[in-house]
Amino acid sequence: MPISFDLTGKTAIVTGANTGLGQAISVALAQAGADVALVGRSSMAETEAAVSAAGGRSLAIQADLSTLEPVDRVISETVAWTGRADILVNNAGIIRRADAIDFTEADWDAVMDVNLKTVFFLSQAFARRLITEGKGGKIVNIASLLSFQGGIRIPSYTASKSGLAGLTRLLACEWAGKGINVNAIAPGYFSTNNTEALRNDPDRNAAILSRIPAGHWGQPEELGGAAVFLASPASDYVHGVVLPVDGGWLAR
Ligand code: NAP
Predict the structure, then answer these.
(1) Element (H or E) spanning 51, and its range?
(2) What's the CA-to-centroid distance between 27 and ligand 1, angstroms?
(3) What is the pLDDT of residues 176-193, one digit of tens each?
(4) Alpha carbon nearest to ligand 1 atom 32, residue
(5) Is 117 left (phi over 0), alpha (psi -120 to 50) or beta?
(6) Residue 97 C-alpha from the chain's centroid
(7) Which ligand 1 atom lies nearest to the CA of residue 220?
(8) From 77, 106, 109, 166, which residue has the greatest number of CB atoms within 10 Å?
(9) What's the chain's Rg over C-alpha atoms?
């Protein structure tokens, strides 16, 4: 069998698809042939247009992922659309910045709920359906360099992304034997809303840039190849990895 990155006939669910990395991943999966359910709390119009321009099909699903309310609905609305759900990209995430000494319970809970709790229960709902139907599938979690490093002033973000790396490994161990691949991508420093505060701070911006061997902030499109790989048959024997896409940051 030739190695295949083809997603024709597959349906992908991407959370936080309206902007940034989620938008770029949605377009990349569509370019590889997948139908893409775009999940989030904001208008998906921009991503719908980009997927369509790439020759793909998409469905917008309105969902605030700070609670578990939409979890079952995201799966059922996707399946009602194409009859299937093969790929889940857990991309939606938030960050709150403050010194650890001042960090509030509200900033702790908000980040953990979106970045970890909903990711787990959405993955569970997705996998339950696949297992009931006796089918395989792909889960791609969007982790972070903070899955490997400590960082500063982002205690709940680091806890959530380090937790997500562990959760990726645990789910891989439980579900690999059922044909479900669970892996993660750890983006380095990408130019999105999430990192706007860093890029606007001249000192932090210069410090970050000076450590990136590739010499530039990641552009969201530069994440697409890794997402397609982990969503495609080419990665069928890859389980439980956290794949850095970081311009060489961790190699320094
Ligand atoms: P972003 O532009 O801020 O995108 C975050 C996405 O998550 C948006 O679509 C946002 O929707 C969505 N989201 C947040 N809270 C949500 C909620 N309660 N319900 C539904 N959707 C929600 O940042 P990004 O950089 O593309 O981030 C995407 C993922 O990559 C995140 O998990 C982030 O932690 C991770 N990451 C980013 C970087 C980087 O350098 N940019 C590095 C490592 C990891 P709204 O637009 O409606 O808020």
Answers:
(1) helix 45-53
(2) 16
(3) 999 999 999 999 999 999
(4) 93
(5) alpha
(6) 21
(7) 26
(8) 77
(9) 17
Q: Which helix (H) or strand (E) holds 89?
A: strand 87-90
Is the model's pLDDT at 1 over the cut of 80? no
> What phi, psi does 193 have (nearest 5°)?
-55, -35
102/113 Cα distance (integer angstroms): 20
What rounded mean pLDDT belongs to the chain?
A: 97
- Supply the residue whose CA is at minimum distance from atom 45 of ligand 1: 42
- Using CB atoms within 10 A of its CB, is residue 135 exposed (0-12), middle (13-18) or buried (19+)? middle
The domain covering 11-243 belongs, at the CATH homologous superfamily level, to NAD(P)-binding Rossmann-like Domain (3.40.50.720)
| Residue 54 CA, ligand 1 centroid: distance in Å | 22
Q: Taking a C-beta distance cutoff of 8 angstroms, is the pair 110, 38 a contact? A: no
Task: Give the phi and the psi of residue 125 in degrees, each rounded to 5.
Answer: -65, -40
* pLDDT digits 0-9 by tens, 68-114: 999 999 999 999 999 999 999 999 999 999 999 999 999 999 999 99
Is pLDDT at 223 greater than 90 in this prediction? yes
Please give the model's pTM, rounded to 2 decimal places: 0.98
